[in-house]
Amino acid sequence: MIPARLHFALAVLLGVLCLVALMTGPVVVTVQDLWRLMTGGGDQRLSLVLWEIRLPRIVAGAMVGAALALSGAALQGLLRNPLADPGVIGVTASAALGAVLALFLGLATVWPWLLPVFAITAALLATMLLTALAGREASVLTLILAGVAVSSFAGALTSLVINLSPNPFTLGEIVLWLLGSLANRSGADVLLAAPFVAAGAALLLSAGRGLDALTLGEDTAATLGVDGRRLRLMVVFGAALAVGASVAISGAVGFVGLVVPHIVRPFVGYAPARLLLPSAIGGAVLVVAADLAIRLAPTTQELKLGVVTALIGAPFFLHLLWTTRRAMR
Amino acid sequence: MTLLAAEQVRVRLGGKDIVADGRLAARSGRVVGLIGPNGAGKTTLLRAVLGLTPVTAGQVLLGDVDVTATPAHRRSVAMAYLAQGGAVHWPLTVENLALLGRLPHLHPWRRPGDADWRAVEQALQDTDMTAFRHRLVITLSGGERTRALLARALAGQAPVLLADEPAAALDPYHQLTIMALFRRLADAGRAVVLVLHDLSLAARFCDDLFLMMDGRTVASGPPDAVLNADTLARVYKVRSPQPLSHGGLVLTTDDGA
Fold first, then answer.
1. Which of A70, A101, A105, B215 could form a disulfide with B41 if both were Cys (CB 3.0 to 4.6 A apart)?
2. Mean per-residue pLDDT for B112-132?
């Protein structure tokens, strides 16, 4: 499928999903209601439900999904490795640590913008550590092991913070954060994270050409005029911004960056640059759909988004390992 | 016309002169062989010329411009590089692989245009890979893969082509085919520089040879002048029972191998 048609198909799918998500819930909204609300009329309570509760949640979901899948696609291009998901390699866990730290210190309640800043800084440190640990022409194994090390360290520090947290209220907040959820996100939360996600996405999307060249290895890419150092910085900073900011909205949501690029890749002929935009849209589709499924699921306790994506993603990760295990040696 | 000239190039890495006095000159229409025993500094000299390794001293002229300190872009349109081994990290089609060679000419946000596709087409024709254009690189044999990677290097239409041991991993038939292909590319106007280990291939297909030993270019000139009994014994520690002019190069060592 040519990319233009792929983009269009994915965008239509995302649009339809968002509409369905907007209309579905405890209060069912019909198309006529929606039309009346958009043209300024209609029920005020309905308007509140739609614009203040459902819309921020959908936008947050789309943003988080796009950021995670785009970061996954770009990191995979940089490390030339289909398993380089921000979750798998410990970037998400580190961003969560940053966010948890901001919550624990009570900074996030005083200055809300410190939450994304903490998450982004932690994600940045993790990504830098990881690219240093995994090296330039890293094997799959080295990368995964480096990811395990970064993840465990972030996990240990997070446990320490939980261990030291003074009251059950903070504790509950932190644990809920770690599960990953889009429930109760306000427009303000979305607006706070949006500039960071946008900046990260811009960096990642403009790295496409360099990522394409990197298919041929670092030396050949350099002879094609690609500045390897600059490219690495762009992807590392871009992924840290996007992942950090999305973790600040939703908590830790894993595997989106692994699953989506993997599905999209055959449709774009495996070219790293052409993978970026469709992955972003596909990521938005996946997270909005997963969140819709969560809202519709007849459970007494609402399922957490991070739990659901992990339940889908971890077996997928196993499957990927299974199919690529020959190349791993 | 001399397109590329490296003079008195010195490359110091880790406190050691890997290349102490490297020289190289490539002319349009000629195949130049860069030869020498293992560890002589051939690959490092090639990398220095390409800007992959910083040049400590000396100059690398592209036309009449010293490129040791210029941005990468000038080099990327003038010189194409075929790396040894040639990794392709994603299962691209041959056509999309060749298209990567157009990167120095592509506007960052624009799709490849007619000129790009014409160059790719030409590169596929030159390497005899047109029939393979939709095949995935991972499904190709060694010889086909080398030609596909060469098509990538040619697609940028750089006047100078540098290849690091392009024939090393190939069987004799494919070695000869690929060398004949380099010959044709030179005849069509390119300047071709090849790092070679196989002296008989070097003798047969190159117009000029640059012989390196211990980081220095110790001899240069036409093959029969460079590959004489004296240098073979001194540099390579091998002997040739018959002179080069008697068609082909047969080598023996002193201990009878």
1. B215
2. 93
Tell me the average pLDDT across B130-147. 92
**Which pLDDT value is given to residue B56?**
93
- Stated pTM of the model: 0.89
Under 8 Å between Cβ of A248 and A119: yes
- Report the gap between the CA of B91 and the closest CA in chain A (Å): 6
Is A200 a domain residue? yes
Average pLDDT over residues B26-54: 93
Which of B47, B76, B92 shows the shortest C-beta gap to A215? B92
Residue in A226, A227, A270 closest to B90 by CB: A270
- CA A168/CA B173 separation, integer angstroms: 75
Calculate how close chain A gets to B124, using CA atoms only, in Å: 18
How many domains, chain A?
1
The bridge status of strand B252-253 relative to strand B57-62 is unpaired
Contact check, Cβ <8 Å, B103/A271: no
Kindly determine whether residue B83 and residue A217, on different chains, have CB atoms separated by under 8 Å: yes
The contact set of A with B (CB < 8 A) is: 80, 206, 209, 212-217, 219-220, 222-227, 269-272
**Is residue B157 pLDDT above 50, yes or no?**
yes
Contacts of A227 in chain B (CB under 8 A): 72
Of B77, B89, B101, the CB nearest to A80: B89
CATH of the domain at A279: 1.10.3470.10
- Structural domain contains residue B119: no
Assess if residue A30 is contained within a domain.
no
Q: Report ipTM for this prediction.
A: 0.90
Q: Is residue B198 part of a domain?
A: yes
CB contact under 8 A, B76 and A269: no
On whether residue A292 sits in a domain, the answer given is yes
- Count chain A–chain B contacts defined by CB atoms under 8 A: 74
Give domain status of residue A49, yes or no.
no
CA–CA separation, A84 vs A79, rounded Å?
7
The secondary structure of A131-166 as a DSSP string is HHHH-SS--HHHHHHHHHHHHHHHHHHHHHHHHH--
Q: List b or e across B224-242, with b for residues whose CB sees 16 or more CB atoms inside 10 angstroms.
A: eebbeeebbeebbebebee
Q: Structural domain of residue B16, as residue ranges?
A: 2-88+156-253
